[in-house]
Each structure stands twice: as C-alpha cells, then as structure tokens.
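HOLO CASE FILE
Compound: pyridoxal-5'-phosphate
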Amino acid sequence: MTSSYFGELQPGSRLLLGPGPSSVHPRVLQAMTLPVVGHLDPDFFQVMNDIGDMLREVYRTANVMTMPVSATGTGAMETACANILEPGDTIVVCRNGYFGIRLGNIAERCGARVHTIDTAWGRPVDPQALDDELSRHSRVKAVGVVHGETSTGVLTPLPEILEVIRRHGALSIVDAVTSLGGHDVRVDEWGIDVCYSGTQKCLGAPPGLAPITLSDAAMQVVKTRESLVQSFYFNLQDLESYWGLSRSYHHTAPISMTYALREALRMLMEEGIENRIGRHARAAAALRAGLEALGLELLADPQYRLNPLTTVGIPEGIEDGQVRGALLRDYDIEIGGGLGEFRGKAWRIGLMGDSARDRNVLALLSALEQILNANGYEVAYGSGLAAAQRELAAFSG
Ligand SMILES: Cc1ncc(COP(=O)(O)O)c(C=O)c1O
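Model generated. Tokens follow.
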C-alpha cells in the first residue's frame, strides 16, 4: 500500500460556531509545530511554569495546585470526582442540563451516594433548592455545579450558590468548561474549592487539555483520604509531583498541546481577561439581537444567558439537519445541535475564544437568512444582520 492510497489530510477550513471546539488562532496552531522536547526537559519545565502562572491569573487564584489535566473537559470532571470522593461519600449534584447529569453520573461511578436537585432546562440552579436539599442530608462532602451549562445556554450565578455550599460545610466542585475566559470566574474571591475547564472553548486552544485548580483545603482532602484514588492517570497526588516542585515523571505530557495552551493563554494575557470577557458579551448580544429579529426563540432565561453559547429554538417545519448541513456544506460554518431534552429542538451557537468576533456573528446571520428562506421559513433579507449591527453600534459593555 502506498502512502498516496490514503491521500493527503485536508480537513475543511471551518468557522467553528458550535459548542466547542472553537476556531483556533494561527498563532496557537503555529506553536504546535515547534520542536518536541522531552517532558523532563528544562525548556519544557519553563513552559509548565508559565502555564501554571497564567492559569492562576485566568482562574484568579493563588492555588498552588493549578495544572492542565491531559484530557478533555470530561477528564477533568473525572479528576475532580475521583480525587475528592471516596466510596460511600455523599455528594449533591445540581442538574440543570446535560453536563450536570454527566457530573452526577461520574460521581456515581466513583462509588458516591449521589443526591440531585433538578432544575428545568433553560433555568439556572436555585440556591434555595440547594439549601433545602443540603438540609436534608448529613455530612455532604461535596456539591457539584455547572457554571455555564452548554446544553441550555444558561449561566448560573455562582457566589450565592457557593455561599450555601460553604454554610453547609461541603466542598464545591465547579464546572467552568464553557465559562472560563468567557465570563468572570473568581476562584479565590468566591471560595471555589475545585474548578475545572477545557482548552477548546473560550481559552482558544484545540481540545486536549483540561485546566484544573484545587484550593489547599481541597488538596488536603485529597491527601488525607483513606482509599486509593481509583484512577492512576488522574490521581492528583501523583500529578502534583510532576506539576509541583519535584517534576518527577508520572505520564508523558502532551508536549505540542501544552505549547498550544501556553500560546493561547499568552494571547489571553495580551488581550486582558476583562477584554476577553467583554468581547464574548458583545458578540453574544449581537447574535441574540439578530436571531430575535429573525423571529427565532431564545431558550435560556433572559436574565441568565451564557455569552459563549446561545440556544435557539428550531422553528416549526424546519428540519434541524437540513439547516446545519447547508451551513457546513455551503458556508463552512459549524453550529451545534441540541443535546438531551433539546435534541432536534434547538441549535447551539457558540461564540467562544477566537470565534467570538463581530464578523462571525454577521457571517452566520447572513448565511442563516439565506438557508431559512430556502427552507420555507421566510425572513426579510438583512433583518437579522441589521439588528445585530444596531446592537454592535450601541454596545457599551
Ligand atoms: C459544561 C461542560 N462540561 C463538560 C464538558 C465535557 O468536555 P469534553 O467534551 O471536552 O470532554 C463540556 C463539553 O462540551 C461542557 O460543555
């Protein structure tokens, strides 16, 4: 068999406006082409130091234990649960979408007793409901909550939730996979114990690493647990020895991906965290205005909308696959379909990281206008675009 049998790899050049991955800036891709060094090379140690420092800035924390897990976001969910929870421990998981359900599922697999509070899709987690649930159980070790629910486009305000968790003496496990870099996440000020994210969303790198941070108190719980962490790969006590002072081998770090994360974080530092968050807010506001002008229904509670991800109802008579297929085939634009309860009923439009730009909002709305008209849902050409442009002109942050 010759190498030409398989052909040259030529993935399409897409505009990624789905739930992640987001489009990756050429600077970040370029970083991945740099020479691979060993994971115990002093040059790589410097890369690790830089990443630790920059992640602490993004998470707004002084936590020593701040590192990227070699995995996507789900690996960080596993890391958080596997290290904090021991068999028989009790956790309350707040579920207001698909990823809350996943968190509960993972906690259960760690042998924990899982209690849940379920909130209607499209609504944020209710602090009172959490308070009531926590009052029903003794010795709750942890509470899991998703900050930005990517399945529904809802942002749950964290400070009040965290206050409830603290009052009941539990540890907080916060999923910031979609919110980190796109919304304020203040680990120390808000008192988050464990917080994790993913590289492929608002941080602007490819999928493959999952930054996590743990408070000293949370690390103390990890270090004094009675049972072994079931996972060798995600065991933070051992990972600490590689990412901490001793730099001893645990597993081979994904070198090129780590370069990419460093460059993505460097770009975030150059832009400034506030500016990055502001850029996400601006793009989201324009998108929402444009979609509403097209007569489409936004599914998240207006007071709690997640800027990096907008859920929009698919109009009656329009076939989900037709529209997403045409966007990809004719315009090279990817958006996401609905998950769980929203499957077939919603589109998920992501404006994350380098994808969160005015020009991308306008390109998507323009394409959507064309495709919706072609599929029998009549909209006035330019109506969505005009509304988005008015929003951009008026946007004041
Ligand atoms: C909120 C949230 N949590 C967790 C995950 C899981 O991350 P991954 O798909 O990178 O494993 C996702 C992925 O979209 C997510 O949006």
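CASE NOTES: The mean pLDDT is 97. The pocket of pyridoxal-5'-phosphate is lined by residues 19-20, 72-74, 77, 99, 146, 148, 150, 175, 177-178, 198, 207 (CB under 6 Å).
CLOSED: yes
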